[in-house]
Structure formats: structure tokens, C-alpha cells
Design brief:
Blueprint (H helix, E strand, L loop, with lengths): L4 E4 L5 H18 L3 E5 L5 H4 L6 E6 L6 H17 L3 E4 L5 H8 L4 E3 L25 H11 L31 E5 L11 H13 L5 E5 L5 H11 L4 E3 L5 H9 L3 E5 L2 H8 L3 E5 L14 E3 L21 H7 L7 H15 L6 H18 L5
Parallel strand pairs: 1-2, 1-4, 2-3, 4-5, 6-7, 6-9, 7-8, 9-10, 10-11
């Protein structure tokens, strides 16, 4: 008989949910069953996770405080009873879903068990208070380990069919090379300055790396997109600030690469397998170690450095960011002169192959360095 499994995650940030995807998938693989997922509506999970093969149904719950706390407990209890789950997994330390699962008579209730949560659980192994000092990813890895659940892939991955998003986002379908800038963040101190995005855009445009840039931010930070467009006075920006996540995903999937602040769209881009560059000067970077994100960071900062002041983002200059974007992002035309030189010279019988290769690399490196100004 098939087992019915539910996974609950209560955090409201999109990036935090994305970080949990490998662990949700591991639970599915452990039971060899698709799982249901309960998350906050703010994550828009029904839009972005709809095509993941290990998910069955996604429920929304607000996870409120005060009077709403018990309203949510009742709502969760009803979901658990109606769905007749055999297992309920809770990926964070909140009590609410554990209480609801107990009231619903769920036989197996498994969670981190930190603090009072453990008295509602049926599992016997728990995380401890010291584990709270670790990243959410490290906590979830330990959670799986103490419950004998194998983890096959550390990196978040999202597969999604974006064709269904096109009809209501036709303004995003433009011809030419596109890239994306993630210009806002839930925390203001993580945000690079608008004028720096403008200068970076100019540097990239000079090298013909794009025809259009999607400006990605939430509606509450739409003033940032407006400011960038007004400062630039260029017509290559596409303002996505009024888009929901279907529009954001469509923009990302149409982009050659993404450059942005440490926020949900950065994690989303990386999970969508878009080449992603994170602008991180005020945050520790250990939380990104299980990620495909390429971190751009001032060289003098410790990995655990934190500063809750936006001024710290000034340490990342546009030229520093531009020069850090790997060569792989450059168009083939940038390499053509030295490539032709190499192949023409390679036919010469007077030089060894090794010397030719070294000469090619030296010439190419000089061209690369001389084509930019040192910041």
C-alpha cells in the first residue's frame, strides 16, 4: 500500500524555500513516493514548483501569530485528517504543524525537535540548540542524517515549463540577447546601488553582451527599477517590477546570465540552471556553499563578514563586478582575433606546439587585460 507523505516548511522567503528543495526531494526518494508540500502563499510555490516530479500537491498556509495561530492549527489539522497522511515531516522548529499533526492522529511526526517542538513529535532523534548556529541547509542535512534519510544531491534544482507563462507576459518576449539584473532584496543592506547597476550595464553593453536587460524586483521596490531607467537614459531595460513569479521565471529562463543581490531571484536563477553571479559584500557566504551561484565579493572580506549597512555594498565597484564575470559569458566575437591568430600560426612548421599554445595564451591574456580599465 502506498504511503502518504507531507512536508511542511514555514519560512516566507522564496530563497529559503529553494534551499530546502534537495531535502524535500530526499524525503520523497526515501519513501519512493511523491510528497505533498505545505508552505506560505507568499512563496508562490504553486507557480514555480508545479513541474517538480517529486511533488504531488501544494497547500498554502499563513503560519500567523496571535489569534491567527490557532486558526492555522485548525486549518492544518483539517488538511492532515482529510489527506490521511502516514508521515508528516516538519523542516523547521515551529510547533504549529506538529501540534496539528498530533491532533489529527498522524502516526509518524518528524521534525528537528528543538525546544518545545519535540514533545509533539514521534521521532526519537533531534537537533540541538547549537545546531541553530548553522545555516538552514546544514540543519536540514543533519535532520536527514539523524532520521536515516539519504541525500543524493546538495544543489537546488527547478525544472519548469515556461510556455504556459508566455500568454500573460508577452511584453517579455523580445528578440536579441537578454540578461537579468536582480536589483532588490528583502533586506535593504544587501542591495547594490542603482547607479552601480547602470554603470555595469554600460560596461557590458560596450562588449555587446546583451541587447536587453530584465530588471527584476518586487512591486514594493519598483522605484529602484524606475531610478535605474531614468539614470541610464537607455532603452535596453525591461522593467519586471510589476510581474509575479511567472513573469520573473520567464525572464530568467530567457536570460543568458543573471547578476544580482543576495535574495530570492538569485537563488531562483541558480536553481533554474541560469548562470548566476551574486553581489555579496554585507553577508556571510557560507549559506551559499551548496549552490551553483558564482559569488562576487570584495577580496578583503572574511567569509563570515556581516554588515547591516547598505554603504558596505559600495566596496563592490561596477568594474570589479564586470571583470569578475567569467570569460564564458563573453561572445565568441571577443575571442575571434586571437583564435584566428592561433590557428594560422599553428600551421607553421618552425615552432613547437607547446610554444604556440603558450604564445596564444599570453597574447589572449594581454588582449583581455588591455580591453578593460583596471578598477
Amino acid at each position: 500500500m502506498n504511503k502518504k507523505i507531507c512536508v511542511v516548511y514555514t519560512h516566507h522567503k522564496l530563497g529559503d524555500l529553494i534551499w530546502q528543495l534537495p531535502y524535500i526531494k530526499a524525503i520523497s526518494e526515501h519513501h519512493n513516493e511523491k510528497v505533498d508540500l505545505i508552505v506560505r502563499e507568499k512563496t508562490q510555490a504553486k507557480n514555480i514548483l508545479k513541474d517538480l516530479k517529486y511533488l504531488n500537491y501544494i497547500f498554502y498556509n499563513d503560519f500567523r501569530k496571535g489569534f491567527g495561530y490557532w486558526v492555522d492549527v485548525i486549518k492544518l489539522t483539517k488538511i492532515f485528517i482529510k489527506s490521511k497522511y502516514d508521515f508528516v515531516y516538519i523542516l523547521d522548529k515551529v510547533n504549529k504543524p506538529a501540534i496539528a499533526a498530533k491532533l489529527a492522529g498522524i502516526k509518524s511526526i518528524i521534525g528537528p525537535g528543538i525546544g518545545k517542538q519535540k514533545k509533539w513529535l514521534t521521532c526519537k532523534s533531534f537537533l540541538n540548540e547549537e545546531d541553530l548556529k548553522q545555516t538552514y541547509s546544514d540543519q536540514s542535512q543533519k535532520f536527514l542524517k539523524i532520521n536515516s534519510i539519504k541525500l543524493n544531491n546538495l544543489y537546488p534544482e527547478i525544472e519548469i515549463n515556461t510556455s504556459v507563462f508566455e500568454e500573460k507576459n508577452l511584453d517579455l518576449i523580445v528578440s536579441g540577447k537578454k540578461i537579468a539584473f536582480g536589483i532588490d532584496s528583502f533586506e535593504d543592506y544587501k542591495m547594490w546601488y542603482e547607479e552601480d547597476f547602470v554603470e555595469l550595464a554600460n560596461l557590458l553593453y560596450e562588449k555587446k553582451l546583451f541587447d536587453f536587460i530584465y530588471l527584476i524586483c518586487g512591486p514594493e521596490k519598483s522605484y529602484m527599477a524606475d531610478k535605474i531607467i531614468n539614470l541610464s537614459k537607455k532603452n535596453f531595460f525591461i522593467n519586471c517590477s510589476k510581474k509575479d513569479l511567472t513573469g520573473v521565471v520567464l525572464a530568467l529562463k530567457n536570460s543568458d546570465f543573471f547578476v544580482g543581490n543576495n535574495s530570492g531571484p538569485l537563488n531562483l536563477a541558480a536553481a533554474l540552471n541560469i548562470k548566476s553571479f551574486g553581489l555579496i559584500a554585507n553577508d556571510p557566504i557560507n549559506e551559499l556553499k551548496y549552490s551553483k551561484i558564482k559569488i562576487i565579493r570584495p577580496g578583503d572580506l572574511d567569509d563570515n563578514y556581516r554588515l547591516r549597512n547598505r554603504e558596505g555594498m559600495k566596496k563592490l565597484t561596477p568594474k570589479k563586478v564586470f571583470l569578475t564575470i567569467p570569460i564564458a559569458s563573453f561572445p565568441i566575437s571577443f575571442f575571434l582575433p586571437q583564435t584566428l591568430y592561433f590557428f594560422n600560426t599553428f600551421n607553421s612548421s618552425s615552432a613547437s606546439k607547446l610554444n604556440l599554445i603558450l604564445n596564444f595564451l599570453i597574447n589572449f591574456s594581454c588582449d583581455l587585460i588591455l580591453s578593460f580599465e583596471i578598477p
